[in-house]
Specification:
The complex is a heterodimer. Helices cover 77% and strands 0% of the residues of chain A. Chain A is mostly helical. Chain A has one domain. Chain A is globular and about 60 Å long. In chain A, 44% of the residues are buried. By secondary structure, chain B is α/β, with parallel strands linked by helices. Chain B has 3 domains: 163 residues, 2-Layer Sandwich (Beta Polymerase, domain 2), CATH 3.30.460; 147 residues, NAD(P)-binding Rossmann-like Domain (Rossmann fold, 3-Layer(aba) Sandwich); 77 residues, no CATH class. In chain B, helix 10 packs across helix 11. Chain B starts with a strand and ends with a helix. Classes of the chains: A mainly alpha, B alpha/beta.
Chain lengths: 269, 425
C-alpha cells in the first residue's frame, strides 16, 4: 500500500513536469514537482524500512525488493540533482524510469523471493548499494543524454517552441551526464571488487559464465567505453550523448536477455 | 481624494517630444517636491523611461492637480507649441489604476511584454518611497498601488505568454547562447566586423559574463576601436582560423559582399569538426558565413532571418496572450479600486466608533454608579456586555458603509451616516 502511494506520488511529479513541458516551461506546476519527488522518496524509504522490519532482512536480495531499492537510489539521486537546480527538468525522464522499476516491483509483489537470503553482513550490502548507485548514475546520464539530443535537434532545426523552452541547456545536460558517469564508474568498479572479495571470503566465488558476473562486467565495459569515448570525441557533445544512450540500452537489453535465458527463480540476477 | 496620472508616452508622442520630458532621478525628486509644495497632491511618484514619463498622484478630487502637474511637466519640456498639450494624457480614478497596472505588466510597452518596465516601475516607486522627506512621497496609498501593480505584473508574466521568449535580435542571441552553453560566464566571443547590431549583441552577451572578446576586421584600426569599447583585443582576418578555434560564440556583421567565414576556414580550424558546441550568429546582409558551415557537427548557425523569425514568433505569441493579460490586469484594478474607494468612509467609520464609545463610557459610568453593590466580576460582566452591544450595533452600518463605498456610493452614504448619527454635532 505504501509502495503504491510512493508510485502515485512519483507519477504526480512526472505529470507536473509534463504539464510544464506542454506549456513551454516556467509554470507554477514545475515548482511543486521537486517537493512531490521529495515526499515520494520519503514515503518510498518508509515503505522499504517497514519491509526490513517485517521480514527481518534488507531489501537488497530478491528481484522485487532489489528493483524497489534501485528505484529508491534513483529517486535519491534525482533529489540531489533537484537540489542543485540547474538541470531539474531532467526529472521528466528520470521519474518514468523510477516508475518502471517500482511498478515492476509492485507487480511482482515486494516480498522476499527465491533462494534463502545470502546476506552476509555489511560487505554485501555495500556491494549491492554501490552497484545501484552506479546503475542510477548510468540512468541519469541516459536521461541527460536523451534530453541533450532533443535540445540539439531543436537548436539545429531552429524550432524554438515549447520543447526548446523546457529542455535545459546543452552545456548543463553535458555536465550532468559527465558527473553521473564520474560517480557511477568508480562506484561500479568498487562494487565489482567488493563482490569478488565477498565471494572469495565466503567460498561463493562466481565463474565468468555466471549471469551476475556477465552483467556486471558488461556494465563496467559500457561505462569504460562511454568515458573513453567522451575523451576521444572531445569532452562531450552529441556523440557522447548518443554513446551513453546506446550504452544504457545495451545494459537494459542484456539484463532482460540474461533473465529470460539464463536465470530462474526470484533473485535479481 | 482621487488617483490620477498625467503622462506622455510612445502612444501619444514622437521621440523628439518624449525626450524633452525625460527626468533624471534628482529632477524627479524636485518635481515631486514641487507637486507636494503646491498642496494639490498628498503622495506622488514619477516614472520616467525612454518611452514614457508619467506622474502618479493621490490628489484632491476636482482640485488644481492637473494644472499643477501640467505646469511641472511643461517646465521640464521647455517651450512647446500649444498643440503639444495633445501629447499629454490625464487619467483619473479607476482608469489611472488600470493604466499603471497595464504599464507594469508590459501591456503598454513599445515592445509588448518587455521585462525592463517592471524594474523601472519598481525603481521609480522605491525612489519616491525612500526619498529623505517626511512624509514620504509614496505613502500608504501609492505604496499599495505600486506594490499591487508589481504583483499583478508578476502574475501576468507567470500566468500568460506575455513575457515569454526574446523580442530583440540581441536578446534572442543571448537566449540561444544560454540554451547552448548554460551559463555564459567565461565563454569566449569572436566578433567579425564592426556593425551596430553586432555590437549590441556582443554588449548583451558581455552583460551575461562572457570574456575574452576578440574583434576581427579587415581594417585593424576599426577592429582596435571596437575591441577597446568592448574591453577585448583585435586581430586581422588572417588569424581567423586560430581565433575561431578558441571561440565559443562568433558574431559576424561585416559589410563584405561575399562570405567571410567559409566552410574551408572552419575545417582548417577544426580538421575533425568542432569538438564542442560553436554558436555562430550571422547578422550581415549579404551573409558573412557560408550556409554549409551550419551543417558541421556541433555548429549552430543562425542568420538575421532566423533571428528575426524568432522575434516575430515571440511577438505573435505575446499578442495572443493579451486578452488573458488584460483580464488579470482588470481584476487587479477592480480589487484595488474597491480598497481605495473604501478609504473615503474610513473617517466616518472612525467618528461613528468614537461617538459610540463615548456614549458607552458615559452610560456605563452612570449605570455602575447606581449599581455600586456589584462585585468586580459583575462590574466586568456589565462592561463586557456594553462593549459587545456597541460592536453589534455598529457592525452592520460599518459593513454597509464599506460595501457601498466599494460600489461607488460613498458620497451618499457618508452624508446619510453623518446626518443619521449626528457626527457633525
Amino acid at each position: 500500500m505504501i509502495h503504491a502511494v510512493a508510485l502515485l506520488l512519483y507519477a504526480g511529479a512526472g505529470l507536473l513536469w509534463l504539464h510544464s513541458l506542454l506549456r513551454g516551461g516556467g509554470r507554477r506546476s514545475e515548482v511543486y514537482a521537486p517537493w512531490v519527488v521529495a515526499v515520494a522518496v520519503g514515503v518510498h524509504a518508509v515503505a522499504l524500512v517497514r519491509y526490513s522490519l517485517a521480514f527481518q532482512t534488507v531489501p537488497l536480495v530478491g528481484l522485487s525488493p532489489s528493483l524497489s531499492s534501485l528505484a529508491l537510489v534513483l529517486g535519491i539521486s534525482l533529489l540531489a540533482i533537484l537540489a542543485q537546480g540547474e538541470a531539474k527538468r531532467v526529472g521528466l525522464l528520470v521519474v518514468p524510469l523510477i516508475i518502471i522499476l517500482e511498478g515492476a516491483a509492485l507487480m511482482i509483489g515486494i516480498r522476499p523471493t527465491g533462494a534463502p537470503l545470502a546476506f552476509r553482513g555489511p560487505w554485501f550490502a555495500l556491494h549491492v548499494t554501490l552497484a545501484f548507485v552506479a546503475y542510477a548514475g548510468l540512468a541519469i546520464a541516459f536521461a541527460a543524454g536523451a534530453m541533450y539530443l532533443v535540445q540539439f535537434h531543436e537548436l539545429k532545426t531552429k524550432r524554438l517552441g515549447r520543447v526548446f523552452q523546457f529542455v535545459p541547456p546543452l552545456g548543463t545536460l553535458d555536465r550532468l551526464g559527465r558527473g553521473a558517469l564520474a560517480v557511477g564508474f568508480p562506484a561500479l568498479s568498487l562494487a565489482l571488487l567488493l563482490g569478488w572479495l565477498w565471494g572469495v571470503q565466503f567460498g561463493q566465488a562466481l565463474g565468468l559464465k555466471d549471469p551476475q558476473v556477465i552483467w556486471g562486467l558488461l556494465t563496467w565495459l559500457v561505462f569504460l567505453a562511454v568515458l573513453v569515448g567522451r575523451r576521444t570525441v572531445g569532452g562531450g557533445g552529441r556523440r557522447a550523448a548518443l554513446m551513453v544512450i546506446v550504452g544504457f540500452a545495451v545494459v537494459v537489453v542484456s539484463y532482460v536477455l540474461l533473465r529470460v535465458t539464463l536465470v530462474a527463480g526470484g533473485t535479481f540476477l | 481624494m482621487s488617483l490620477a496620472i498625467l503622462g506622455v508616452s510612445h502612444r501619444t508622442a514622437p521621440i523628439e517630444v518624449r525626450e524633452r520630458f525625460v527626468f533624471s532621478r534628482a529632477d524627479a525628486l524636485a518635481a515631486l517636491a514641487m507637486l507636494r509644495a503646491s498642496g494639490v497632491a498628498h503622495e506622488a511618484v514619477l516614472l520616467s523611461t525612454c518611452n514614457r514619463t508619467e506622474v502618479y498622484a493621490d490628489i484632491e478630487a476636482g482640485g488644481e492637480g492637473r494644472a499643477v502637474a501640467e505646469r511641472i511637466l511643461a517646465d521640464r519640456a521647455g517651450p512647446l507649441p500649444e498643440a503639444a498639450k495633445e501629447y499629454l494624457y490625464w487619467l483619473e480614478g479607476r482608469d489611472a489604476v488600470y493604466q499603471l497596472f497595464r504599464v507594469a505588466a508590459g501591456l503598454d510597452s513599445m515592445v509588448l511584454g518587455e521585462a525592463e518596465i517592471q524594474g523601472q516601475v519598481r525603481e521609480s516607486y522605491e525612489y519616491a518611497a525612500l526619498a529623505p522627506v517626511e512624509p514620504p512621497f509614496a505613502g500608504a496609498v501609492l505604496s499599495r498601488l505600486f506594490q499591487t501593480a508589481l504583483s499583478i505584473g508578476g502574475r501576468v508574466r507567470s500566468e500568460t505568454e506575455l513575457g515569454r521568449g526574446s523580442a530583440s535580435v540581441a536578446s534572442v542571441a543571448v537566449e540561444l547562447a544560454r540554451k547552448i552553453f548554460g551559463s555564459l560566464r567565461g565563454r569566449r566571443v569572436l566578433v567579425l566586423g564592426a556593425g551596430d547590431t553586432a555590437e549590441l549583441a556582443v554588449e548583451a552577451l558581455a552583460r551575461e559574463g562572457v570574456q575574452g572578446i576578440v574583434v576581427a576586421n579587415r581594417t585593424r584600426e576599426r577592429a582596435q576601436a571596437l575591441a577597446e569599447r568592448l574591453g577585448g583585443s583585435a586581430i586581422g582576418f588572417a588569424d581567423l582560423a586560430t581565433a575561431l578555434r578558441d571561440a565559443d560564440i562568433t558574431v559576424s556583421s561585416t559589410g563584405a559582399p561575399h562570405a567571410v567565414l567559409t566552410l574551408d576556414t572552419v575545417r582548417r580550424a577544426f580538421p575533425l569538426g568542432p569538438p564542442r558546441p560553436l554558436f555562430i550568429i550571422d547578422i550581415a546582409v549579404p551573409r558573412d558565413v557560408e550556409p554549409d558551415v551550419g551543417k558541421e557537427r556541433n555548429v549552430f548557425l543562425y542568420n538575421i532571418d532566423d533571428l528575426q523569425q524568432i522575434v516575430g514568433d515571440t511577438l505573435h505569441r505575446r499578442g495572443e496572450a493579451v486578452p488573458a493579460a488584460e483580464r488579470i490586469v482588470a481584476e487587479g484594478a477592480d480589487e484595488f479600486w474597491r480598497w481605495y474607494s473604501s478609504l473615503d468612509v474610513v473617517p466616518v467609520i472612525r467618528s461613528l466608533r468614537e461617538r459610540g464609545e463615548r456614549v458607552r463610557q458615559e452610560e456605563l459610568a452612570r449605570t455602575l454608579q447606581r449599581l455600586s453593590h456589584l462585585g468586580n466580576e459583575d462590574r466586568a460582566a456589565v462592561e463586557e456586555m456594553s462593549r459587545r452591544l456597541l460592536n453589534k450595533l455598529l457592525h452592520t452600518p460599518t459593513v454597509h458603509l464599506r460595501r457601498g463605498a466599494a460600489n461607488g456610493r460613498s458620497e451618499t452614504l457618508i452624508e446619510a451616516a453623518r446626518e443619521m448619527f449626528g457626527l457633525d454635532e
